[in-house]
Design goal:
The complex is a heterodimer. By secondary structure, chain A is mostly helical. Helix content of chain A is about 70%, strand content about 0%. Chain A has one domain. Chain A starts with a helix and ends with a helix. The relative contact order of chain A is 0.13. The longest helix of chain B is centred in the first third of the chain and has 20 residues. In chain B, strand 2 and strand 3 form a beta hairpin. In chain B, the strands form two sheets. In chain B, strands 2-3-5 form a three-stranded antiparallel sheet. Chain B has two domains: about 30 residues; about 90 residues, Alpha-Beta Plaits, CATH 3.30.70.3270. Chain B is about 25% helix and about 15% strand. The two termini of chain B are about 50 Å apart. Classes of the chains: A mainly alpha, B alpha+beta. Chains A and B meet through helix 2 of A and helix 2 of B.
């Protein structure tokens, strides 16, 4: 194994860890501020280090610190201490490992050697995702069971019943995707979504299989135990459901696991249905052969974006009264954003002037694709939060009704249609 | 009287699909989100310590005050009506004889324990001489010890009618 492939593997693992676990404070912040803005509230924006409020993101770090330093309390009535301790770990590890099979970019060729851009370079792809996404519910079941409280047990029973009914529909909708793509390896699936129909619509999964996309997205929401499918938590009737008895960082791990599952689900939805790392209308070969134009486009777009960001900040980051720290923060952030933008632009211009080697072109393509993946990933995460703060929680019988009587027959129908289509077309 | 027919929703195919309704709801929330993201002055939240509420009205029950005669002496005649009416037993009055033209008694000491007070305004209703009022508009009363929450006569008489209310 050469040095370059070791470095690439390390980078991939770091990206996966950051996206799966490290983004939790950011997503908590999003959750709070986006929900607040949707309800015409302000949300937490006071917490600060020096003049830096960063729009309130400091608050979620403060909360994280609080959870770490809180007493790790185990109620005395708990008989199965081992299960009680291990269950948040299971949720955490599973949601983290789910991310390992997501490709961040196309196969990266360095000195003629191919590197799969995944945290774990496995060909299992979708199977890996299904395995670990299904496993993470064991943490919830064990946690609720070993809590020794009725609320916890009810929450975990609901979670297990929900996962059984929705995993089936999810698997069936994936089968129709696999029929049309012909591979379980996620890089192959994303590469199959490269082209366009009639030079207009990108060949994404959602346009090939709209029904499967809807079913899969609904089931993925149910799989992550988030609203409208968060009956396992159900704070209106079950206190806090499966994590009623948990406190401190054990509860924090459940929280991180929930957001990790959300990240993993949005990543797999993006990969399967929204073209993954593919830039719309530009496949890998097109980027590699026109790399100069792509760099030029970035050089033009980047300052415009930074201009809009900084002017938006200047307009909205204001304090009432004599406090000058908001202006100070705006000034510091604006200058650092411009510094960053100018540095990147100079770097890109030097690339344009001196030219990139074959490896350089490949790496630049990979970075652009990772950026595309990240943009799509964050948009999908936004959709998760958006749906949570719009749609009401299902009643339990309606949830099961939707799963068994609607989604599974639809998924079966979709498999039939796909299979007939594939057989008739012969491809 | 005619019969009012209430239309039942949820039976048509479009309603049973759920997705159009969900899309409508998501459109509404996104509209609010973008509206507030563009300019956060649109938010309804009041940035409290910097911005103080201005919508106090005559019925608002703030911290108590003792009203005064023209010459600055207290109107209170120490009749103990307020202390009797108080459901929280938080008013402590000590009466002495009074030697001016207003009344025969006056309070030597008049204490209100704000930690026990439930701000029910019964004392104001009970007072026959309009001597105690709750129109100071003080809604956040902070202190660093339990003793500081007990307002004595001097403190109660320095409290004035809120400037936000129309003075008259």
């Amino acid at each position: 194994m050469s040095t370059s492939s070791i470095i690439i593997i390390i980078i991939n693992i770091v990206i996966a860890v950051i996206l799966a676990v490290g983004l939790t404070p950011l997503f908590v912040w999003w959750e709070r501020r986006i929900s607040a803005f949707m309800q015409d509230r302000s949300g937490p924006n006071r917490c600060h280090i020096g003049p830096f409020r960063l729009g309130g993101v400091i608050q979620s770090f403060a909360d994280m610190l609080k959870l770490i330093f809180k007493e790790d309390f185990t109620p005395s009535h708990i008989k199965y201490k081992f299960l009680f301790t291990i269950s948040p770990v299971i949720v955490f590890i599973c949601s983290f490992l789910t991310f390992a099979a997501i490709p961040f970019a196309d196969v990266l060729v360095i000195d003629g050697k191919e590197n799969i851009m995944q945290a774990i370079p496995t060909q299992l792809g979708i199977m890996w995702f299904l395995a670990f996404a299904g496993l993470s519910v064991y943490g919830i079941i064990l946690g609720g069971y070993s809590s020794g409280s009725k609320y916890g047990l009810l929450g975990s029973i609901r979670a297990s019943a929900q996962v059984i009914s929705y995993e089936a529909a999810m698997g069936l909708s994936i089968i129709s995707m696999l029929i049309s793509y012909g591979s379980i390896h996620l890089t192959d699936i994303v590469n199959a979504q490269a082209g366009t129909y009639l030079e207009v619509v990108p060949m994404w999964g959602i346009f090939i299989q709209p029904l499967a996309a809807i079913i899969f997205i609904i089931c993925a929401f149910a799989e992550t135990n988030r609203a409208p499918f968060d009956l396992a938590e159900g704070e209106s009737e079950l206190v806090a459901g499966y994590h009623t008895e948990y406190s401190a960082m054990k509860f924090g791990l459940f929280q991180v696991g929930e957001y990790g599952a959300m990240s993993a689900s949005s990543a797999i939805i993006v990969t399967l249905f929204f073209g993954g790392y593919q830039v719309p209308w530009l496949d890998t070969q097109a980027i590699q052969s026109n790399i100069n134009y792509v760099i030029l486009a970035i050089i033009i777009i980047l300052p415009i974006k930074v201009y809009f960001l900084t002017s938006w900040m200047k307009k909205n980051n204001k304090a009432i009264g004599s406090d000058k720290s908001r202006e100070k923060e705006t000034k510091i952030l604006t200058s650092s954003f411009w510094f960053l933008a100018i540095t990147i632009t100079i770097l890109l211009i030097s690339f344009l002037v001196f030219g990139l080697g074959t490896n350089g072109v490949n790496i630049a393509t990979a970075i652009i694709q990772i950026g595309t993946f990240l943009i799509k990933f964050f948009m999908m995460a936004f959709v998760y939060i958006w749906v949570r703060w719009t749609v009401l929680r299902f009643r339990y019988d309606q949830l099961q009704m939707l799963g068994w009587k609607v989604l599974i027959p639809l998924a079966l129908l979709n498999i039939m249609i796909t299979a007939i289509f594939v057989v008739v077309r012969g491809s | 009287m005619g019969i009012q027919v209430v239309p039942r929703y949820g039976k048509s195919f479009k309603d049973k699909l759920y997705l159009p309704a969900i899309a409508g709801g998501m459109k509404t929330t996104l509209k609010h989100f973008i509206h507030n993201l563009k300019d956060n002055n649109n938010l309804r939240t009041m940035q409290y310590p910097e911005v103080q509420p201005t919508d106090l009205n005559e019925r608002y029950r703030g911290v108590h005050r003792l009203t005064k005669h023209e010459d600055g002496s207290e109107k209170c005649v120490a009749c103990f009506m307020c202390a009797t009416a108080c459901p929280a037993d938080c008013i402590f009055i000590e009466a002495v004889e009074r030697f001016d033209e207003y009344a025969e008694k006056r309070p030597k000491e008049f204490k209100i324990d704000l930690l026990e007070c439930v701000f029910c305004r019964y004392c104001v209703e009970a007072c026959p001489c309009d001597a105690i009022r709750m129109d100071t508009g003080i809604f956040s009363f902070v202190a660093s010890s339990r003793e500081d929450f007990v307002l004595d006569k001097k403190a109660l008489m320095t409290n004035e009618r809120s400037k936000d209310l129309n003075n008259g």
